[in-house]
UniProtKB/TrEMBL annotation:
Residues 38-119 form the Inhibitor I9 domain. Pfam families: Inhibitor_I9 (PF05922), Peptidase_S8 (PF00082). Keywords: Hydrolase, Protease, Serine protease, Signal. Coiled coil: none annotated. InterPro entries: Peptidase_S8/S53_dom, Peptidase_S8/S53_dom_sf, Peptidase_S8_subtilisin-rel, S8pro/Inhibitor_I9, S8pro/Inhibitor_I9_sf, SBT. GO terms for molecular function: serine-type endopeptidase activity. This is Inhibitor I9 domain-containing protein. It comes from the Eukaryota. Belongs to the peptidase S8 family. Residues 1-22 form the signal peptide. SUPFAM superfamilies: Subtilisin-like.
Length: 296
C-alpha cells in the first residue's frame, strides 16, 4: 500500500472522528442550555411610575415582565414559581440558561443563580444550656407565652404530645396565617406547604405539612414543645421533655420534601411567615462547605 495513501486515510478518519465527537459535545451543550431549571432572580424594586399610583402595587406583574415573552402563551406549565414581596426583591422561575442570559440585559435586573438545595440539620435542648424550669431567665420569660415561632422544616406530626394545646390561649390577634392540616389548635396555629416547583414537575397538588421522617417534629418541639412528663427514648432515659419556649405558639412551614429543601420554597415560606405575623423564625437547614457570602 502506498504510504501517502495510508497517511491520508488516517488523517481523514481522525478528522471524521473529531467532527462526530464535536457534534456530540455541541448537542450536549445545546441540551444543557435549553434545560429548564429553577433560578432565584433578584431585581430592583419596581418604580411606582411603571405599575401605576396604586397603594397595592402589583409586584407580580413587575416580576413577570422579566420573563421571556413566548412563555406567556406557548408553555403548558407556568414558568413563574414564586413572586417574593418581603424577604427579597425578586422571584423564582423555571428558565433555561439562554433565557437567563437574555434577562441580564433588562433594566432592573440584579442577579440570577440556580436555586440551591439545602439539607436538614440538628440542634440542642434547654438542659444543655443550663436552663431551669423553676427559676432564672427561662421562667422570667414566661416560657415564650404569646410569641409565635415559625418553623421552616419538613412539617410536624400534629398529634405529638409536644403539640398539645391544653391550657393554651388562642393565637394573638395579629396572627393572619393559614392552616392546611386537617385541624390546627391553639398550639399549632398555622401549617402550610411550599413546593410549587416540585408539584409542577411531578403533576401533584398541594401536600399537607405532615412530617415524613421526624426531623420537623424534632426541631419544632425543640423550639416550642410543651412540657411532657414521662418522655423516653425507646423505653430508656425517662424524664420531662420541653422545648425552649413551651408556651409559645407554632406556625409550621413545610419546605423540605424527602432530603431536599429547595431555596425557592424557603424564600416563599419566609415571605409568608413575615406577612402572617410570626415573631421568631427557626430554620435547622444548611449546606456543607459553602462560603458565608453565598448564604448571607
Amino acid at each position: 500500500m502506498d504510504m501517502s495513501y495510508f497517511i491520508c486515510f488516517i488523517f481523514l478518519f481522525n478528522f471524521h472522528s473529531l467532527i462526530v465527537r464535536g457534534s456530540k459535545f455541541s448537542s450536549a451543550e445545546e441540551i444543557e442550555k435549553n434545560k429548564l431549571q429553577t433560578y432565584i432572580v433578584r431585581v430592583e424594586q419596581p418604580d411606582i411610575g411603571v405599575l401605576g399610583q396604586s397603594d397595592n402595587l402589583d409586584v407580580g406583574s413587575w416580576h413577570k415582565s422579566f420573563l421571556p415573552l413566548h412563555t406567556a402563551s406557548s408553555d403548558t406549565q407556568p414558568r413563574m414559581v414564586y413572586s417574593y414581596k418581603t424577604v427579597i426583591s425578586g422571584f423564582a422561575a423555571r428558565l433555561t440558561e439562554e433565557e437567563v442570559q437574555a434577562m441580564r440585559t433588562k433594566k432592573g435586573f440584579i442577579s440570577a443563580h440556580p436555586q440551591r438545595i439545602l439539607r436538614k440539620q440538628t440542634t440542642h435542648n434547654p438542659r444543655f444550656l443550663g436552663l431551669q424550669q423553676e427559676l432564672g431567665i427561662w421562667k422570667e420569660s414566661n416560657f415564650g407565652k404569646g410569641v409565635i415561632i415559625g418553623v421552616l422544616d419538613g412539617g410536624v406530626l400534629l398529634d405529638h404530645p409536644s403539640f398539645s394545646d391544653e391550657g393554651m390561649p388562642p393565637p394573638p390577634e395579629k396572627w393572619k396565617g393559614k392552616c392546611e392540616f386537617t385541624a390546627c389548635n391553639n398550639k399549632i396555629i398555622g401549617g402550610r406547604s411550599f413546593n410549587i416547583d416540585g408539584n409542577m414537575t411531578k403533576g401533584k397538588g398541594v401536600e399537607p405539612p405532615n412530617d415524613e421522617d421526624g426531623h420537623g417534629t424534632h426541631t419544632a418541639s425543640t423550639a416550642a414543645g410543651r412540657f411532657v412528663n414521662y418522655a423516653d427514648v425507646l423505653g430508656n432515659a425517662k424524664g420531662m421533655a420541653a422545648g425552649m419556649a413551651p408556651l409559645a405558639h407554632l406556625a409550621i412551614y413545610k419546605v423540605c420534601f424527602g432530603e431536599d429543601c429547595a431555596e425557592s420554597n424557603i424564600l416563599a415560606a419566609l415571605d409568608a411567615a413575615i406577612e402572617e405575623g410570626v415573631d421568631v423564625l427557626s430554620l435547622s437547614l444548611g449546606e456543607e462547605g459553602v462560603p458565608f457570602s453565598r448564604t448571607a
